[in-house]
Specification:
- It is built from 20 helices and 19 strands.
- Strands 2-1-3-4-5 form a five-stranded parallel β-sheet, sandwiched between helices. A five-stranded mixed β-sheet has the order 6-7-8-10-9, with helices on both faces. The protein has a five-stranded mixed beta barrel with strand order 12-14-15-19-18.
- The two termini are 25 Å apart.
Length: 593
């Protein structure tokens, strides 16, 4: 295999890349020119035919028969952004084909995660003869066995990892099942719903590719929803996902659906100096749009997301406001639980082990995953957050959600003690479960292993070194070719060594830090968001205190680049700091991944 420097040189000569971008791509592991061409220049032709998915032919055949016969069809989805957007895609596609379609999403606080026998029984009672799951179902043996008993045909479309045995369903569309040889295993639930819609709308085509030129306009319009779900569900933004997200994000700049327009108007403030269409990035989706979509499910009303996208113009704004209010409630609950956890961690020595398991009475189960992600982000340690809730018959039930760093397979840990759970499921780095509270000590013992066990799994990457003089508008244009950023394609982190403070530091809104830094005559602005928490400056190893930030101090910076257009100053870039330390001669700090 070519070395990093050889690959960079080949990318320069063969693809006409600038030396800096070629070096950056080589440093990120790229070696093959053909694969890099598809990455840098994604096209819809790079997507795969839906017919390559095992179970697709059976699913389409049964769905078309139901449409032709006027059968009642019900979509059974999940309550997160991926599940609700998948529901919107498939519902709209089936309605466009004349289908009589209803949908049902689980009530998170009443029914918990996943497909239940009760949902199947309600569908049968309503005269439904075909149910199609989206983003759920692959581990729901009891619910699907009940469907078979009642004569309800069920098609499962799900991207979660299956168990040792597949459930009893008419057809299963899941790229992770052993019989499926689909080239890209990383599709989210909404992308699989899109693939089913694609097969239904465009008809059976060649099984060796996707004739995107023949896609009807409606199919292309669904890419906006697929892009939002892909980013929201932290699906890897490489391969086919990158194509779908790239085109979908581009479409979000000119939304047509009234509900989507209303949502974006609330989530995305107007860009400075840009009165036209607003460019929507993957960061916008991850930090502004997805939280509002997820809030409804977390707070117990996921159906409101689906109804938003089918709302008439007169109702769209009010429905979007409802999501906004739910998101604000969600933020307050997260902050309260996180504050309680921080107090506990500060006063108690956590139990030894590579998984941090924290439980509290009455913690809102809808926000446990977010809190687990925050604890993971602050500690670097796999975090499992559990809410203990009393039961009417006595005792208590534990509802938990866990998040783990890359390379740590948390779902395998749960598989190893599956007898403890009422229900569980998820991905390698994101899980959810329910069990009797009395079994919590056993779970802690089964999950937590000596901390040394995770050392090899955790990974740190060095920031790509830049000189301040290399931070130019041309660099911003080059980096834009790497977007959209997300899982498996993170936004690049850079490191500038030995820069000096050019002026006294500024504290903004009593929370943020603003620095003016210079190096060899080049000057830049650097911002560190939320460096003060609850009024306290956040210290870290090697980081100078507030009193040590004086003009002339030499620093090493770790940062991402943010670009924008100001109505007065025009194009400008600033450094968004992830960390900074005192520069020490002969030694540089490794940047956090």
């Amino acid at each position: 295999m070519a070395s990093e420097s050889e690959a960079a040189e080949r990318f320069q000569l063969g693809l006409g890349l600038t030396p800096l971008l070629a070096r950056l791509l080589a440093a990120r592991g790229w070696r093959e020119t053909d694969a890099l061409v598809e990455f840098l220049y994604p096209r819809l032709e790079h997507t795969h035919s839906p017919w390559l998915l095992h179970g697709m032919e059976r699913a389409v055949e049964r769905t078309r028969a139901a449409l032709a016969a006027g059968e009642r069809i019900r979509i059974l989805g999940d309550y997160d952004a991926d599940g609700t957007l998948a529901t919107v895609i498939l519902r709209q596609a089936l309605r466009s084909l004349g289908g009589e379609v209803s949908f049902a999403l689980p009530k998170r606080l009443e029914e918990g995660y996943g497909l239940t026998p009760a949902a199947i029984e309600r569908a049968v009672a309503d005269g439904v003869t075909l149910a199609i799951t989206v983003d759920t179902g692959i581990r729901e043996h009891a619910a699907l066995a009940r469907a078979r008993e009642l004569g309800l045909d069920v098609i499962v479309t799900d991207h979660h990892l299956p168990g040792e045995e597949l459930p009893a369903a008419l057809a299963i569309v899941n790229p992770h099942q052993a019989e499926c040889h689909y080239p890209d295993k990383g599709l989210c639930g909404a992308a699989l719903a899109f693939k089913l819609a694609q097969a239904l709308l465009e008809g059976k085509g060649e099984a060796n590719g996707s004739a995107s030129a023949s896609w009807p306009p409606a199919l292309r319009s669904y890419l906006k929803l697929v892009a939002m779900a892909t980013v929201a569900d932290a699906a890897p933004l490489v391969g086919e996902n990158r194509v779908l997200a790239k085109y979908g994000l581009a479409g979000l700049s000119e939304p047509v659906n009234p509900g989507l327009r209303a949502l974006l108007a609330l989530a995305l403030p107007p860009q400075e100096g840009a009165p036209g269409a607003r460019t929507v990035s993957s960061r916008d989706v991850a930090f502004r749009i997805a939280p509002r979509l997820n809030a409804a499910g977390r707070m117990g009303g996921a159906e409101q997301v689906v109804e938003l996208f089918f709302a008439p113009p007169a109702e769209a704004a009010q429905r979007a406001q409802t999501l906004e209010a739910l998101n604000q409630q969600r933020q307050q609950l997260c902050d309260a639980i996180e504050a309680e956890i921080e107090t506990r961690l500060a006063s108690e020595a956590p139990a030894a082990g590579d998984v941090l398991l924290l439980a509290g009475e009455g913690w809102h189960r809808g926000v446990l995953g977010i809190v687990a992600s925050r604890v993971l982000g602050r500690t670097g340690q796999a975090a499992v957050i559990v809410s203990l809730e009393p039961e009417a018959a006595g005792g208590a039930r534990a509802h938990g959600s866990g998040r783990a760093p890359e390379g740590f397979h948390l779902l395998e840990r749960l598989e190893a003690c599956r007898e403890l759970f009422d229900r569980f499921g998820g991905h390698a780095q994101a899980v959810g479960f329910t069990l009797a509270a009395e079994r919590l000590p056993q779970l802690r013992e089964a999950l937590c292993r000596p901390a040394e066990a995770r050392t090899a799994a955790r990974r740190e990457a060095a920031g790509f070194e830049l000189k301040l003089s290399e931070i130019t508008p041309a660099l911003a244009r080059e980096l834009a070719r790497l977007e959209p950023y997300g899982e498996a394609n993170p936004e690049p982190l850079f490191e500038a060594r030995g820069v000096r403070l050019a002026a006294p530091p500024l504290q903004l809104k009593e929370r943020h830090l603003k620095l003016a830094v210079e190096q060899d005559g080049a000057r830049q602005t650097a911002l560190f968001w939320n460096l003060w928490r609850d009024g306290a400056y956040q210290h870290a190893p090697g980081r100078p205190g507030w009193e040590g930030l004086t003009p002339g101090t030499a620093l090493n910076l770790v940062f991402r680049l943010e670009s924008g257009t100001h109505p007065v100053y025009g194009f400008r870039q600033q450094l968004i700091l992830k960390d900074f330390t005192l520069a020490v001669r002969g030694r540089s700090r490794v940047a956090p991944a």
